[in-house]
Design brief:
With 468 residues, the protein is α/β, with parallel strands linked by helices. It folds into 4 domains: 144 residues, Periplasmic binding protein-like II (D-Maltodextrin-Binding Protein, domain 2); 96 residues, 3-Layer(aba) Sandwich (D-Maltodextrin-Binding Protein, domain 2), CATH 3.40.190.10; 41 residues; 146 residues, Reverse transcriptase/Diguanylate cyclase domain (Alpha-Beta Plaits, 2-Layer Sandwich). 43% of the residues lie in helices and 21% in strands. Strands 1, 5, 6, 7, 8, 9, 10, 11 and 12 form a 9-stranded mixed beta sheet that branches. Strands 14-15-13-16-17 form a 5-stranded mixed beta sheet, with helices on both faces. Strands 2-3-4 form a 3-stranded antiparallel beta sheet, covered by helices on one side. A hairpin with a 2-residue loop joins β14 and β15. The protein is globular, with a radius of gyration of 25 Å. The termini are far apart. 38% of the residues are buried.
Length: 468
């Protein structure tokens, strides 16, 4: 058995040869953009973390960050044309309401009304199922089973053409598909690795896993209306000029992963083939294979670590903390041991981002996480719960011990120097597992105490007190 992540990670790569973030437009291109005044854009309204339209009508996600870069390079505004569904966005660009589609695969159907830039994002397409499914070796393992897909997405025609025995179930959006998989109503869902892992974390569906890789992959581009070749030329220059540092920052900002394990048959056959070819050199083969296995084990260990770790702060991510919470909860109940939870978030963190920029905000999160990690016990479990919110699981700790720990960390954070930012404070909520709570309610109690700390002026610790 090999870690399935070793083949998935090969797909989590960005495409194209990045160049310096400067472009030289021709006179024709400059005049054309000046005359247009703006570029109208249609997007996938429910495709996070690639992109979405939020409740305020704004374009958000990876593609939005890239479009901001393209707008700066081209010196022209790229304006969103809001839609409610992917099909509506495609219809708009066919009807020339939109000049471009921000992020999509190139297909024969779409090439009838769109030209395409080079690829600027690549990602594997994977299958999600419940965590009692060990491994799915692509679409062929779904024969006779149900698969949730969104009408109009590129997977639909691919599966119909190549895997007619898969039973397609149309869903309104990916969130709907994942919830139905979690409830056991459909067997699996399909989408990009980035999107599925993001949505699983956002929905808190801890009984889902990435169960298999498909033979399909995303090669995502900007689509430009067929009747505007000059805009295509300018947009192509912008895509090719993406700075690699900015590209990696965008990916890191949105990427979190949880993986399953399975057998990598393609690599297995390659190894067996090598054995046959090198049968006469048994000694040499042994050395090579041993080195390969050592490297593979080290790489898989690293990948498992990455799948459990928040990419910014290096502490546990939410999915890992959820799993550890279930374990500690069961242990505390079985052996009648104490278990406490401390939840905290950084006060007025949005002001840091607004005043000093997101990079400065990232540094604050990194420094705060490192400080807390260095000031808790080795058996305490520390993770990023979301945004600027963090969670500490404290086994063998009663309410008084949790309160003392929270107060100690609050004082440490308040005194932490942050250069030009100055300082930052945090609000804490603490609670101890009682006789009646389940794991979900235990977290809710800590959140209630944290809310009370904010109501009481922030930069303080509050302990949950049940009301009867």
């Amino acid at each position: 058995m090999r870690s399935f992540v070793s083949i998935l990670v090969l797909g989590v790569l960005v495409a194209g040869s990045a160049r310096a973030q400067t472009i030289v437009l021709s006179e024709t291109e400059r005049n054309h953009l000046r005359d247009k005044g703006r570029i109208t854009m249609c997007v996938g309204p429910h495709w996070m973390p690639y992109e979405s339209i939020d409740e305020r009508g704004r374009h958000i996600g990876m593609a939005a960050d890239f479009m901001d870069l393209f707008s700066l390079m081209l010196g022209v505004s790229i304006d969103l044309v809001p839609t409610k569904a992917w099909i509506e966005s495609l219809d708009n660009v066919r009807g020339k309401t939109c000049d471009i589609m921000s992020l999509l695969n190139k297909t024969a159907d779409r090439s009838a009304y769109l030209n395409f830039t080079d690829t600027y994002l690549n990602a594997v397409v994977v299958l999600v199922s419940r965590d009692d499914v060990v491994f799915l070796d692509g679409f062929k393992d779904l024969k006779g089973r149900t698969l949730g897909v969104i009408k109009g997405y590129v997977y639909e025609s691919h599966i119909r053409d190549n895997y007619p025995d898969v039973r397609l179930v149309y869903v309104d959006n990916l969130q709907d598909a994942l919830k139905r998989v979690s409830r056991g109503e459909i067997f699996a869902a399909v989408d990009s690795l980035f999107i599925l892992t993001y949505q699983m974390q956002q929905l808190g569906l801890s009984n889902l896993i990435i169960a298999g890789q498909t033979d399909f992959s995303h090669a995502l581009r900007v689509g430009v209306r067929k009747d505007d070749p000059v805009l295509l030329s300018a947009m192509q220059k912008a895509v090719r000029a993406i700075d690699p540092v900015q590209r990696n920052e965008i990916l890191q900002r949105w990427f979190t992963v949880r993986f399953a394990h399975g057998t990598d048959y393609s690599i297995l056959w390659k190894v067996l083939g090598s054995v046959a070819l090198l049968l006469a050199f048994l000694g040499y083969r042994f050395v090579v294979q041993k080195r390969f296995n050592t490297q593979l084990q080290a790489k898989n260990t690293q990948l498992v670590h990455l799948s459990q770790t928040d990419p910014l702060t290096g502490i546990y991510n939410r999915l890992k903390v959820d799993a550890m919470l279930e374990r500690e909860f069961e242990r505390a109940r079985r052996y009648e041991r104490s278990l406490s939870v401390v939840m905290f978030d950084l006060d007025f963190f949005k002001q840091v981002n607004d005043t000093h920029g997101h990079q400065a905000g990232d540094r604050v999160l990194i420094d705060a996480a490192a400080l807390v990690r260095d000031n808790i016990r080795t058996h305490d479990i520390f993770g990023r719960w979301g945004g600027e919110e963090f969670l500490i699981l404290c086994p063998e700790t009663d309410e008084q011990g949790a309160q003392q720990l929270a107060e100690h960390l609050r004082a440490k954070l308040e005194s932490m120097g942050l250069g030009e930012i100055g300082s930052i404070t945090a609000s804490f909520g603490a609670t101890q597992l009682g006789k009646t709570e389940d794991a979900k309610r235990l977290i809710g109690n800590a959140d209630t105490a944290l809310y009370q700390a904010k109501q009481d002026g922030r930069n303080c610790v509050r302990v949950y007190k049940p009301t009867f």
